[in-house]
Design brief:
Blueprint lengths: L1 H14 L1 H22 L8 E6 L4 H13 L2 E6 L1 H9 L5 E4 L12 E5 L5 H20 L12 E5 L13 H13 L2 H15 L1 H7 L4 H29 L9 H25 L3 H19 L10 H6 L4 H14 L9 H21 L6
Parallel strand pairs: 1-2, 1-3, 4-5
Antiparallel strand pairs: 3-4
Helix pairs in contact: 1-9, 2-6, 2-9, 3-5, 6-9, 6-13, 7-10, 7-11, 9-10, 10-13, 10-14, 11-13, 13-14
């Protein structure tokens, strides 16, 4: 029964060329277009980051952690000199590390950047520095919890010259993969509803098979399609658009699997509450676009105001992008660095699945 359901759903989707285009070609067009918009110059050169030299042990430790990423050409300078370098475009960013005696006051790390720099550059610099901050907070020697080690970005008005290594595809590919990956929930939800409206679901209920087997078969089909979508988009992003993977490919595969699972479970929930295919298609698409925006799929969360940035953590998109951007932008990142987002995505999946199973009409067709 399970194999037959998978084959049936795959054939139905194959005949629906519009759905296939929305799952594969539309995200490809978006990530290519947005990548070229945000693309900068000289993607091979490391970014110049000036660390304000105050002689503190915390500063030295942070410089060492930044060096291991291989993403920056590091220099040290007093704060006034660091600000001047950023303003004149001679440095991509400057970082002020809180002194040890200031940690108890929860003093933030301060990242100085020119507000006129390209969007993708600001996002990638902030993502890498934020990841290093998180790693430092996880060290046993750190006395301050990670949530008390914020990264505050200060706008230093300067020439606004384009920064180096500003590859927009490092931002656009993960963002659009997550944004459109969740749209499989719309396709799955509509498929369930059309079965109920056509009477197919009622006939399946009359078969000598538990209806849960059909649900699982349908969800498995879309899980496989979602995985294929992820493989296709990242393959094009890597092989054609030049997106680089800085971290573990295995961790990336697990994150993609978690995203697809979450989207499929969301599709079950959508089908359980939807009453018409037209309503589900319209409303769910709008909701997913809003969640994608809050999660950073269109504009990286690192560039949002702090209050809006926090809202992204209430969406599965935000956690998925945190994990993918860590693996795409931070050299040496692996499973340990994305364990928390993975667990949160699994929690979202379980929640959507339980709600969908509870509300789905397993008996009345």
């Amino acid at each position: 029964m399970l194999t037959a359901t998978v084959k049936k759903e795959a054939l139905l989707l194959w005949r629906d060329r519009g759905a296939l285009a929305s799952l594969f070609l539309l995200p490809l067009a978006f990530m290519t277009f947005m990548g070229f918009i945000f693309r900068g110059t000289d993607a091979s050169a490391p970014r110049k980051l000036v660390v304000v030299d105050d002689g503190a042990a915390t500063t030295e430790a942070f410089v060492g952690a930044l060096e291991t990423t291989g993403a920056f050409a590091l220099a040290k300078a007093p704060e006034a000199r660091a600000r001047a370098l950023v303003k004149t475009g001679q440095a991509d960013a400057a970082l002020l590390v809180p002194a040890e005696e200031a940690e108890d006051a929860q003093s933030p790390y301060r990242l100085l950047m020119d507000g006129g720099t390209p969007l993708a550059v600001r996002a990638s610099v902030q993502a890498i520095v934020s990841a290093v901050v998180a790693r430092m907070a996880a060290e046993p020697a750190c006395r301050t919890p990670p949530e008390n080690l914020p990264l505050r970005v200060e706008d230093v008005r300067g020439a606004g010259a384009p920064l180096r290594n500003a590859d927009g595809f490092q931002v656009s590919v993960p963002g659009n993969v997550v944004l459109f990956g969740f749209f499989i929930a719309v396709t799955l939800g509509i498929s369930f509803i059309e079965e109920r409206k056509s009477g197919t679901w009622r006939r399946l209920l009359a078969a000598p098979v538990h209806p849960g087997a059909h649900l699982l078969g349908k969800m498995l089909t879309y899980l496989l399609i979602g995985i294929l979508q992820m493989v296709f988009l990242f393959a094009v992003g890597r092989g054609v658009l030049g997106m680089r993977l800085a971290g573990s490919a295995f961790a990336m595969a697990l994150v993609c699997l978690a995203v697809v699972l979450c989207a499929v479970c969301l599709g079950l929930f959508v089908a359980s509450v939807g009453r018409s295919a037209r309503t589900v298609g319209a409303l769910t698409s709008v909701v997913l676009l809003v969640l994608g925006m809050l999660g950073g799929a269109m504009i990286p969360r690192a560039l949002m105001p702090e209050s809006v940035r926090a809202l992204g953590l209430f969406t599965p998109h935000g956690w998925a992008l945190d994990a993918l951007q860590m693996l795409v932008l931070v050299p040496g990142s692996g499973l340990a660095d994305v364990a928390r987002p993975l667990l949160v995505l699994l929690a979202f999946s379980v929640g959507f699945a339980l709600l969908g199973w509870w509300r789905f009409p397993l008996r009345d067709g």
